[in-house]
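My main concern about presentation is that the manuscript never shows what a single data entry looks like. The format is easy to grasp once an entry is in front of the reader. For illustration, here is how one protein appears when written out as sequence plus structure tokens:
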Amino acid sequence: MFFAAAIVTGAILLTLPFSATAERIGIVDALFTSTSAVCVTGLTVVDTGKDYSLFGQIVILLLIQLGGIGVMTITSALLMSLGGRLSLGDRYGLSSSYSAGESVPTVSLLKAIVSTMLIVESLGAVALFFRFYGEMPASQAFHHAIFHSVSAFCNAGFSGFSENFRGYYDDPLTLMIVASLIIIGGIGFVVIREVCIKAVHWNVRLSLHSKLALTTTAVLLSFGAICFLLAERNNTLAGDSLTVNVANALFQSTTCRTAGFDSIAQASLTDISLVLSVLLMFIGGSAGSTAGGIKTTTVAILSIVAFHRLRGSRSLRAFRSTISLESATKAMTLTLAAATVVVVGALALMMAAEPPTTYAYSHGQFMECVFEVVSALGTVGLSMGLTPYLSDAGKLILVALMFIGRVGLITLVIALATRPPAGEITYLEEDVMVG
């Protein structure tokens, strides 16, 4: 309800005449932009830098920040500042969202979340300011530095540049600054907190959650960068230096993890790169972060389940710890639910995009629709260029997918965490043949 209220409020503000530079933004386009901002997705139907005025861009920036921090965090802070008390269930929900089950005082948790976000965004803004200052006036560089730092850390993908970061294709340092903000924002607050503590006290042990999140993130980033480098070396990366190629391959691998920025036009990528991008977008970032997707820890658990089951082992072990069967069940349920939404969403978007036609006349439409659907559900924001040309029905389908991706999957996780009612009837177990 709070996410919906924030989206509606943002849509109303974006439809105001002074939110646009020229023609007033239509209600569907404003709703789409507001949803994309609050859900930190980054998909756009109008040019953020050209079509929105300074006021409109500030509204978008605030919506991104609101979505990044999480409405639950903000409303909890407001309740406590007004002297209100959170229920035990709300405190558990807030703590479990950001602390991997560890018991952390709510006030301390909120302070850590907000302070971490502000510190990282400020450092990112300073670094980007010095990169932008040499090519634009100081006031403009300051505006773009703050906007892109917040957008990157919140994994939103909104850009004040009409060509996104394609103009910085040959600027590895700028790409790496943005990529670092994306990775930090998508790793999760509990991981950042534990890493900072371990940096000071080496004898402190990282939790299994942090180990899985860090390991999976490193594997996905490396695997994605190598694959992009190989797939694009004779295509979009042809003719450039090795440094530029590596920087862009790593940036593409990073931005697919729900960030939405691009230094290369997605429609120019090879089929291999597009399939890999869809996979990375579906996985997303880590739990308790600003990122979307089914999360890195979910994929890690599924991989561990497959590995041990294929070996005939009944226990699920990782880093000298045993993963509970309940966690494995949650991971499988979440993945199946997300995959189902992708299939249904892709079918709906294809029917809304244009009348059904034969494959011979619709080359590329399937990949475009699947790409947009996974990007919306994973709150990524990357696009092959289809979004601005969608009908109002198609735009509303993506609005629903962005909302489901940001709120629905979290709601599903909370539902899975709910204990079954006392006295629930159980029956005798019976094996079923599989495969």
Remarks:
- The chain has one domain: 2-417.
